[in-house]
Amino acid sequence: MNVKLCFIVLAFALAGCGGSLMNETASQKKAVELTEITLPEAEKFVTAFPEAKRSISHFKSSGSIPCWTAQAILHNRFLVTIQIPVKIDKNTDGTAKSISIDGEVTRVVNEVVSVGKLGGGRLSIAYGQQVKPTEAQWEEILSRRELTGMLPDASSRPGVPGIDGTRQ
Protein backbone atom coordinates (compact mmCIF):
# COMPACT_ATOMS: atom_id res chain seq x y z
CA MET A 1 0.00 0.00 0.00
CA ASN A 2 2.81 2.45 0.89
CA VAL A 3 4.59 1.68 -2.38
CA LYS A 4 1.45 2.55 -4.36
CA LEU A 5 0.99 5.75 -2.37
CA CYS A 6 4.63 6.77 -2.98
CA PHE A 7 4.21 6.06 -6.70
CA ILE A 8 1.04 8.18 -6.87
CA VAL A 9 2.67 11.07 -5.00
CA LEU A 10 5.73 10.83 -7.26
CA ALA A 11 3.51 10.81 -10.38
CA PHE A 12 1.68 13.94 -9.21
CA ALA A 13 4.95 15.66 -8.33
CA LEU A 14 6.41 14.90 -11.74
CA ALA A 15 3.23 16.04 -13.49
CA GLY A 16 3.35 19.27 -11.50
CA CYS A 17 6.99 19.87 -12.41
CA GLY A 18 6.35 19.10 -16.04
CA GLY A 19 3.41 21.48 -16.14
CA SER A 20 5.33 24.37 -14.61
CA LEU A 21 8.32 23.76 -16.86
CA MET A 22 6.01 23.69 -19.86
CA ASN A 23 4.41 26.97 -18.73
CA GLU A 24 7.82 28.56 -18.25
CA THR A 25 8.86 27.50 -21.74
CA ALA A 26 5.60 28.80 -23.21
CA SER A 27 6.02 32.09 -21.31
CA GLN A 28 9.57 32.48 -22.56
CA LYS A 29 8.52 31.65 -26.12
CA LYS A 30 5.79 34.30 -25.91
CA ALA A 31 8.35 36.84 -24.62
CA VAL A 32 10.71 35.99 -27.50
CA GLU A 33 7.89 36.48 -30.01
CA LEU A 34 6.75 39.72 -28.36
CA THR A 35 10.32 41.05 -28.54
CA GLU A 36 10.48 40.27 -32.24
CA ILE A 37 7.29 42.16 -33.08
CA THR A 38 7.88 45.04 -30.63
CA LEU A 39 11.55 45.96 -31.07
CA PRO A 40 12.59 47.01 -34.61
CA GLU A 41 16.19 45.82 -34.11
CA ALA A 42 14.99 42.29 -33.24
CA GLU A 43 12.42 42.29 -36.05
CA LYS A 44 15.07 43.26 -38.64
CA PHE A 45 17.36 40.43 -37.51
CA VAL A 46 14.60 37.80 -37.60
CA THR A 47 13.48 39.03 -41.03
CA ALA A 48 17.05 38.73 -42.35
CA PHE A 49 17.69 35.40 -40.59
CA PRO A 50 14.40 33.55 -40.02
CA GLU A 51 16.39 30.39 -39.21
CA ALA A 52 18.24 32.10 -36.33
CA LYS A 53 18.15 30.52 -32.88
CA ARG A 54 16.44 32.95 -30.51
CA SER A 55 15.98 33.03 -26.75
CA ILE A 56 15.57 35.24 -23.70
CA SER A 57 17.94 34.67 -20.80
CA HIS A 58 17.13 35.52 -17.17
CA PHE A 59 13.39 35.48 -17.91
CA LYS A 60 12.41 34.51 -14.36
CA SER A 61 15.39 36.01 -12.55
CA SER A 62 14.85 39.18 -10.56
CA GLY A 63 18.52 40.02 -10.05
CA SER A 64 19.66 40.04 -13.68
CA ILE A 65 18.59 41.97 -16.75
CA PRO A 66 16.83 39.69 -19.25
CA CYS A 67 18.49 39.59 -22.66
CA TRP A 68 17.00 38.65 -26.04
CA THR A 69 19.70 36.84 -28.02
CA ALA A 70 19.65 35.64 -31.61
CA GLN A 71 22.36 33.80 -33.55
CA ALA A 72 22.59 32.89 -37.21
CA ILE A 73 25.27 31.12 -39.23
CA LEU A 74 26.81 32.73 -42.31
CA HIS A 75 29.06 31.04 -44.87
CA ASN A 76 28.95 27.89 -42.69
CA ARG A 77 31.76 29.44 -40.62
CA PHE A 78 30.61 32.61 -38.86
CA LEU A 79 28.17 33.15 -35.99
CA VAL A 80 26.31 36.44 -36.32
CA THR A 81 24.94 37.40 -32.90
CA ILE A 82 22.76 40.18 -31.56
CA GLN A 83 21.94 40.68 -27.88
CA ILE A 84 19.32 43.14 -26.70
CA PRO A 85 18.91 43.76 -22.96
CA VAL A 86 15.17 44.00 -22.35
CA LYS A 87 12.75 45.11 -19.68
CA ILE A 88 9.81 42.72 -19.46
CA ASP A 89 6.58 43.89 -17.89
CA LYS A 90 4.62 40.79 -16.93
CA ASN A 91 0.98 39.91 -16.48
CA THR A 92 -0.14 38.42 -13.16
CA ASP A 93 0.30 34.92 -14.63
CA GLY A 94 3.99 35.61 -15.37
CA THR A 95 3.63 35.97 -19.13
CA ALA A 96 5.16 38.95 -20.90
CA LYS A 97 2.83 41.92 -21.31
CA SER A 98 5.26 44.40 -22.88
CA ILE A 99 8.94 44.52 -23.84
CA SER A 100 11.30 47.47 -24.13
CA ILE A 101 15.05 47.93 -24.61
CA ASP A 102 16.91 48.18 -21.30
CA GLY A 103 20.53 48.88 -22.29
CA GLU A 104 22.96 48.88 -25.16
CA VAL A 105 22.47 46.48 -28.06
CA THR A 106 25.48 44.23 -28.78
CA ARG A 107 26.24 43.01 -32.30
CA VAL A 108 29.15 40.68 -32.99
CA VAL A 109 30.45 38.26 -35.62
CA ASN A 110 32.56 35.33 -34.42
CA GLU A 111 34.55 33.10 -36.71
CA VAL A 112 34.34 29.42 -35.76
CA VAL A 113 37.58 27.62 -36.61
CA SER A 114 36.66 24.12 -35.47
CA VAL A 115 34.01 22.16 -33.59
CA GLY A 116 34.83 18.96 -31.74
CA LYS A 117 32.58 16.59 -29.83
CA LEU A 118 33.19 15.86 -26.18
CA GLY A 119 31.42 13.31 -24.00
CA GLY A 120 27.88 13.87 -22.82
CA GLY A 121 26.80 15.80 -25.90
CA ARG A 122 29.11 18.72 -25.16
CA LEU A 123 31.09 20.55 -27.81
CA SER A 124 34.59 21.95 -27.93
CA ILE A 125 34.51 25.13 -30.03
CA ALA A 126 37.60 26.98 -31.22
CA TYR A 127 36.97 30.58 -32.23
CA GLY A 128 39.08 32.73 -34.51
CA GLN A 129 38.48 36.34 -35.32
CA GLN A 130 35.79 38.36 -33.56
CA VAL A 131 34.46 41.56 -35.16
CA LYS A 132 32.02 44.16 -33.87
CA PRO A 133 30.45 45.57 -37.03
CA THR A 134 29.78 49.26 -37.54
CA GLU A 135 26.18 50.37 -38.14
CA ALA A 136 26.79 50.37 -41.92
CA GLN A 137 28.37 46.90 -41.81
CA TRP A 138 25.50 45.59 -39.68
CA GLU A 139 22.94 46.92 -42.16
CA GLU A 140 24.87 45.19 -44.96
CA ILE A 141 24.85 41.91 -43.04
CA LEU A 142 21.08 42.19 -42.56
CA SER A 143 20.26 43.30 -46.09
CA ARG A 144 22.63 41.05 -48.05
CA ARG A 145 23.39 38.22 -45.60
CA GLU A 146 27.03 38.86 -46.43
CA LEU A 147 30.18 39.73 -44.50
CA THR A 148 32.16 41.08 -47.45
CA GLY A 149 32.03 44.68 -46.19
CA MET A 150 33.98 43.78 -43.06
CA LEU A 151 35.67 40.47 -43.97
CA PRO A 152 36.30 40.52 -47.75
CA ASP A 153 37.37 36.86 -47.92
CA ALA A 154 34.58 35.54 -45.65
CA SER A 155 32.72 33.60 -48.33
CA SER A 156 35.91 31.93 -49.58
CA ARG A 157 36.94 30.55 -46.17
CA PRO A 158 36.13 26.86 -45.77
CA GLY A 159 33.00 25.84 -43.87
CA VAL A 160 33.27 24.19 -40.45
CA PRO A 161 31.71 20.75 -39.94
CA GLY A 162 29.44 20.67 -36.89
CA ILE A 163 28.89 24.44 -36.74
CA ASP A 164 25.11 23.99 -36.42
CA GLY A 165 25.58 22.77 -32.86
CA THR A 166 27.34 25.97 -31.78
CA ARG A 167 24.30 28.24 -31.65
CA GLN A 168 22.70 28.81 -28.26
Main β-sheet: number of strands, strand sense, barrel status?
6 strands, antiparallel
| Class by alpha and beta content | alpha+beta
User: Strand portion, in percent?
Assistant: 25-35%
Parts with pLDDT < 50 across at least 5 consecutive residues: 1-24
Tell me the series of helices and strands, N- to C-terminal.
HHEEEEEEH
**Euclidean distance between termini CA atoms:** 46 Å
Calculate the mean pLDDT score and round it: 80
Task: Tally the helices.
Answer: 3
Categorize the overall geometry. globular
Number of domains: 1
Radius of gyration: 20 Å
**Strand count:** 6
Short note summarizing the structure:
It contains 3 helices and 6 strands; from the N terminus they run ααββββββα.
Helix-strand layout with pairing:
Elements: H1 2-38, H2 40-48, E1 53-57, E2 67-74, E3 78-90, E4 96-101, E5 106-117, E6 123-131, H3 135-144
Antiparallel strand pairs: 1-2, 2-3, 3-4, 3-5, 5-6
Helix pairs in contact: 1-2, 2-3
